[in-house]
Amino acid sequence: MTRAFVAIDGQSFASHGEWVVRATRCLTSHPKYHNTEHQGPAKGRRGEHFTALCFDQKGRRVRNGGDFQRAEDEGAFPVWWVWPDQIAELIMQRESAP
Description:
Distance between the termini: 23 Å
Largest sheet: 3 strands, antiparallel
Number of strands: 3
Low-confidence stretches: none
Helix content: 25-40%
Shape: globular
């Protein structure tokens, strides 16, 4: 059996049910950056220009509830996500791997 791919440890949903419970908290609040579209120090959604990108185990973008349901129906969990500021580092790691 092939091991599931998750780009960054801790950034995945093991099941559709876990996505339902955790999605808002995980996908709308970057762990490092503060919200720049609104006044105040609160962390949170930064708008369409800074959202997490989700992918299932078949490599498909997962953008909405229908896509998450398709991943569940087709056994394509875990679904993992990456923030835009993490992409360059992931590419650099892959290119330097033996």
